[in-house]
Amino acid sequence: MYKPFIYLLFYLVVSSCTSKKHVDHIITNANIYTVDNNFSIAQAMAITNGRVVDVGSNEEIVSKYKCDTQFDAEGKTIVPGLIDAHCHFYGLGIYMQKVDLSGTKSFDEVIEKIVSFQKEKNSDFIFGRGWDQNDWEIKEYPTKDRLDKLFPNIPIAVRRIDGHAMLVNQAAIDLAGINEETVIFGGEIIKKDGKITGVLIDNAMDLVNNIIPSTTKKEAIQALKDAEKYCFNLGLTTVDDAGLDKETIDLIDSLQQAGDLKMRIYAMVSANKKNLDYYLKTGVFKSDRLNVRSFKVYADGALGSRGATLKEPYSDRENHFGAMVTNLDTLKQIAKRIANSNFQMNTHAIGDSANTFILKTYTTALKSQTDRRWRIEHAQVIAPNDFDYFRDIIPSVQPTHATSDMYWAEDRLGNERIKGAYAYKKLLEINGKIVLGTDFPVEKVNPMLTFYAAVSRKDLKGYPEDGFEPENALSREETLKGMTIWAAYSNFEENEKGSIEAGKMADFVILDQNIMEITIEKVPNTKVLETWVGGEKVN
After folding, report:
1. Is 6 contained in some domain?
2. Model confidence over 462-474: pLDDT tens digits?
3. Are both 133 and 274 inside the same structural domain?
4. 3-class SS string, 174-233
5. Is residue 181 domain-resident?
6. What is the pTM of this model?
7. 136 within a domain of the structure (yes/no)
């Protein structure tokens, strides 16, 4: 008498199992911040063919899907793949092969590192980056004298941390053909008592850049792979590389197509005439891992090297206003050309004068066009009357710049102008979105430091106690959005990445701590346990 019931039960179990949809992966028992429109939290997700199929509770996902590989996240926090909205990915890889001067606390330490590097590499041309005189007890530019004595016959060119100043020795100066009469537009050859000190600012660096030995294809490939490994280990799945030439973009594409480079890259093309002519003719290029639809333009220099262009003189250098590195008429012409295309214009603008000019130039060039998503990269010092321009222009900022620069920024700007600097919350309130990056290797790559700086407005020692301009701190939700969905939006990619939702790419990161709930002081020590790109574990 029980046989019909047993048969029915067996039929229900079998039909339930066979009706489940097969997927590649199921992840359960997770704490998933989906960053969808409701900023909802889920427990599980199903993945197939590199995309998210479904997100929900454990019961919902397990009841609807089956797979060969099911992962138990054991309660760990999962966030969408992190996007660095402004960095120098290829540059990071290149500098990993050169002398690293970041973190040096004196010019003596710079010298020690150069000497040590040369003993190991025996290079014909010593090249590096990372020094910052603002971190030294004597906060003055170095001179070439000691380098001349130590390396009289080997050219040396080492960039300042922001990339807008360079220290060179006499051997490099001679090779570049620089002398006391050399004239530079948009830069400076710093002199003392009429003699060249060895420090070159902005466009003056090009004279030396032109004689630095070219990177070989083998070195370039290794640089890209080294940078990828470093970034994957820290949870980055997309990088916006701010300034690439066609040759490097083509190399990236070939490596990606061959499966040898898996990082997703939003390429900002360096806006020189050759690149503009080529890409404006051929148009936007898009694949799953590469998006070429923007140009990187430079307006001025950097605040740390006093190259940022200000409306009034620097507070710590009489009658000095900084300098535009691109001619004003050229900037207008570039904006007009890009406005007549489908490309985005992303302009480096630091000083209030540079920002004013670019914001007005954007407005004139775009006229009544909508949804162009043009960006100001850094948007560092904004005049009070210019904030409203950001209603239609995306601010792309780097939170660790604020906490690195806070020790000397007011010296450069004075106590009034500093109020319009690093004003991230105000920019967010006006635009509704703000996108976050690091500018690495200017700052450290680790996105956990970006998160910490944006929320706390403090350095890693907890200074200042109440935060630097704490009124401009972002909330944790705003910060995570700035590193995911808003960054994706700024790349015209919000429908394919930036959140963990059905149909989007399965790019996500598993963390060892819940950065949305732990004390903010613990965030910098948060470790990335796994990074997934397109449904594949890449670290």
Report:
1. no
2. 999 999 999 999 9
3. no
4. HHHCCCCCCCCCCEEEEEECCEEEEEEEEHHHHHHHCCCCCCCHHHHHHHHHHHHHHHHC
5. yes
6. 0.90
7. yes
